[in-house]
Design goal:
- The protein is of the alpha+beta class and 446 residues long.
- It has 20 helices and 14 strands.
- The protein folds into two domains: 200 residues, D-Maltodextrin-Binding Protein, domain 2 (3-Layer(aba) Sandwich), CATH 3.40.190.10; 206 residues, D-Maltodextrin-Binding Protein, domain 2 (3-Layer(aba) Sandwich), CATH 3.40.190.10.
- The strands form four sheets. Strands 1, 2, 3, 4, 9 and 14 form a six-stranded mixed beta sheet that branches. A four-stranded mixed beta sheet has the order 11-12-10-13. Strands 5-6 form a two-stranded antiparallel ribbon.
C-alpha cells in the first residue's frame, strides 16, 4: 500500500504541471459599452476562445470611457491591469501620458509590440489595412499607438419627405444652402416648428474647425510637438459659433436645453420636429431603420462653411489600448485577439450591427462585394466623407475638461444671448489655463 501511495503521489507530481500548462491564458478586455455592443463583443470573444483554446478572452463592460480608464489605473496600481482597455479619441494625449506606479507608461504601442511580424498565431496583422483617417489619428510621433475600433464622423440625417414637400430639390452641402432650405421648410403651412438640431457637444465644433482647415491647437494641432496653446477664439471658431447662434436666433436650429443631449436631438428628428439632424455616423444604420415606417431618411455629409471651402472631417469614437508590462503570453494573446477582432468579417459585422465605419479597407471591400452598400447607401457616407480630404484632429491634454468649458459657454450663447466674441475669448482663456496646468503636471519641461 505504501508503494502504491508513493507511485500515486509521484504521478500527481508529474501530471499536475502538465495539466497546469493546458489552462488557457486569461486575456481581460475592458470596454466602455454595456448594451448590445457589449453582447456583440462577448460573442466574438467566445468565438475566439473556441478557435484559440490556449486563450480565454474575458470582456467586462463599463458605463463610460472614463470609468474604464480609471479602473485600469487602479488595477495597474494593484499590479493586476487588464490586457486591453477601451478609451476614446479625444483622450489620446491622456492615455499617452498615463503612467504606472513605477513610472512606466501605462500603455504600450501596438505597433511596437507587434514589431515586424505580419501574423501572430496565424492571425494576419491588420494595422496596415486600417482606414487612413483612423490610422492617421492614432499615429503619434510616427508610431501607431493603439488598435482603432469604434470609429465615426459627423454626418447629417435628412427627412427626404419634408424636403420634397417643401420643394427643396437638393440636399444642402453648405451653411448657406442649409439656411435657404430651412427658410423654405419653415414657410410650409404644416411643416415642422424648427428646421435642424444637433447636440451641444464640443465634437461638432471640432468638426467645423477641421472643415474650415483651421487648427484647434498649436504645434500642428499637437502633432508636431506637444500642444501648449488652443485657439477657441480664432476666426474659424468665431465663424462657426456665430453661425450656430444665428441659426438659433432665426428659429432654424432648436436647442433641447441639455448639454450633450444625443437622445433628445435624435428624438426630435425621428418624431419629425425637425427636418435635419447633424449627428454621429455611428447611427447611420439605426436612424433610417427607426424612421422607415414614417418617412425616408437620407444620410449626407455634414454641411460646411462655403467661405472657407471644404477641408475635411475628422473621426470620433474610440480605440483599444494594449496595457504595458504584461507577460509575453498575455501580450501575444491580446495582440492575437485584437487583430482577429478586426479581421474583415468581424469589422464588417461590427459596422452592420452598430453603424460605426468598417475600420479596415478589406472590411469595406468585403461589404461592397456583398452588395451591402448598394442596398444601404447611407452606410457608406461616413467612409466616403473621411476619404474626401485627409485631415487629422487635434491632440492635447485636458481635452475632455476643455470640451465641457465649450459646451457650457455655448449654452450661454444659445439660451442667454451671450456675446459670441467675448464668450469665446473667455472660453479660450479658461481652456488655455486647463492646458497649461495639465502640461505642468505631465510635461513640466514645457
Amino acid at each position: 500500500m505504501k508503494r502504491l501511495a508513493f507511485i500515486y503521489t509521484l504521478a500527481l507530481l508529474i501530471l499536475v504541471p502538465a495539466f497546469a500548462q493546458t489552462e488557457p491564458v486569461e486575456i481581460r478586455m475592458w470596454i466602455a459599452f454595456t448594451d448590445f455592443r457589449l453582447d456583440w463583443t462577448r460573442e466574438r470573444a467566445a468565438e475566439f476562445n473556441e478557435l484559440f483554446p490556449q486563450y480565454n478572452v474575458v470582456v467586462e463592460g463599463f458605463q463610460s470611457y472614463n470609468e474604464a480608464f480609471d479602473a485600469t489605473i487602479l488595477a495597474a496600481e494593484q499590479g493586476n491591469p487588464p490586457a486591453i482597455t477601451h478609451f476614446f479619441e479625444a483622450a489620446t494625449q491622456n492615455a499617452r501620458d498615463a503612467v504606472t506606479p513605477a513610472g512606466e507608461p501605462l500603455f504600450k504601442s501596438v505597433a511596437e509590440a507587434i514589431g515586424d511580424r505580419t501574423e501572430i498565431n496565424g492571425v494576419p496583422v491588420v494595422l496596415d489595412d486600417v482606414v487612413s483617417a483612423a490610422a492617421d489619428y492614432y499615429t503619434v510621433d510616427g508610431v501607431f499607438t493603439s488598435m482603432p475600433w469604434n470609429t465615426s464622423t459627423a454626418v447629417m440625417f435628412v427627412n427626404q419627405d419634408i424636403l420634397s414637400a417643401a420643394g427643396v430639390d437638393k440636399i444642402p452641402e453648405t451653411w448657406g444652402e442649409l439656411e435657404a432650405a430651412c427658410e423654405q421648410i419653415l414657410a410650409m403651412p404644416n411643416g415642422p416648428s424648427n428646421c435642424i438640431t444637433w447636440p451641444n457637444h464640443g465634437w461638432f465644433f471640432e468638426q467645423s474647425m477641421a472643415q474650415q482647415g483651421a487648427d484647434l491647437a498649436n504645434n500642428g494641432n499637437g502633432r508636431d510637438a506637444r500642444a501648449t496653446e488652443v485657439f477657441f477664439d480664432s476666426e474659424a471658431a468665431l465663424a462657426y459659433v456665430q453661425w450656430w447662434k444665428d441659426m438659433n436666433d432665426k428659429g432654424y436650429y432648436v436647442y433641447t436645453g441639455r448639454q450633450r443631449d444625443w437622445g433628445g436631438t435624435q428624438n426630435a428628428f425621428e418624431s419629425q420636429q425637425v427636418a435635419f439632424l447633424i449627428f454621429s455616423s455611428s447611427d447611420a444604420t439605426v436612424i433610417p431603420a427607426n424612421t422607415a415606417e414614417n418617412f425616408t431618411t437620407v444620410v449626407s455629409r455634414m454641411p460646411y462653411n462655403e467661405a472657407a471651402g471644404y477641408n475635411g472631417n475628422i473621426i470620433g469614437g474610440a480605440t483599444l489600448w494594449l496595457n504595458n508590462g504584461l507577460s509575453a503570453e498575455v501580450e501575444d494573446g491580446a495582440l492575437t485577439f485584437m487583430n482577429w477582432f478586426s479581421n474583415p468579417e468581424n469589422a464588417a459585422s461590427w459596422h452592420q450591427v452598430t453603424g460605426y465605419i468598417p475600420i479596415t479597407n478589406s472590411a469595406f471591400n468585403l461589404l461592397e462585394q456583398e452588395g451591402w452598400f448598394a442596398e444601404n447607401p447611407n452606410a457608406a457616407v461616413a467612409n466616403i466623407q473621411l476619404d474626401l480630404v485627409p485631415t487629422t484632429g487635434a491632440l492635447f491634454g485636458g481635452f475632455v475638461e476643455i470640451r465641457d468649458v465649450f459646451t457650457q459657454a455655448m449654452e450661454e450663447i444659445l439660451l442667454n444671448d451671450a456675446d459670441v466674441a467675448q464668450t469665446m475669448a473667455e472660453v479660450n482663456a479658461e481652456a488655455n489655463a486647463i492646458l497649461e496646468e495639465y502640461n505642468l503636471l505631465f510635461a513640466p519641461e514645457n
